[in-house]
Amino acid sequence: MDQTAARRGGMHRRRGAARAVVLAVVCGLIAGGVTAIAQGMLPAWLSSLANSSGSWTLLAFLLALPAPTAVSGAACGFGSLLSMLAGYVLTDLLRGYPASTGLMVFWSAAALVAGPVLGVGAQWLRRRPGTRAALGLSALCGVLLGEAGYGLLVISESTSPVYWWGQGLVGVLLLAAGAGWKLRGVGLVVQAVLFTAAVAMVFVVLYTHGPALMLLVP
């Protein structure tokens, strides 16, 4: 009986994992297409939403939450980000706007590196206590706050600061909400804040040099 129950439990987890990954990929394709269409159509104060990695990051994190395991969460994170890129590129191709190889290489690498981290982070926040939950929360909030800081410090002259302040506020609110939901004790909250600050600083460095690396690929 125990072996039968274990087999059924394993089958249930595998089916749940497959459903989560398929849903992540389908939603990613749709989100990528919508992003491509939204560029140039949004009002000035919201136009950065269609160019922001923060919106894709948040969606990838949310799509990984239903996954039953950390492995399937990582697959959801990677699959959703890669399918967002595919949806974006395919939609632009259908509209007569070919994508550069540099863009595809850069964002494919970002999906490969950041996608699994976000997916595992979502699972840790949902299912694991302590430091791992703090790390999972920081993976998301660090990206949101890091890009908000990049927008305000580096590209504030060419984009509206309203969006970046809004994204920064979302990052702070999610950090506070996640800490209140999963983190018990001042020590874990401090860890989450420090981890978030570290992720944000790394993001700013990588994002600042990323466009220059894209220029190296024709």
UniProtKB/TrEMBL annotation:
TM segment ranges: 20-38, 71-90, 102-122, 134-156, 162-181, 188-208
Organism: Saccharopolyspora terrae
Keyword Membrane: yes
Keywords, in A-Z order: Membrane, Transmembrane, Transmembrane helix
The UniProt record lists the keyword Transmembrane helix: yes
Coiled coil: none
InterPro entries named in the record: DUF6518 (IPR045393)
Protein name per UniProt: Uncharacterized protein
Top-level taxon of the source organism: Bacteria
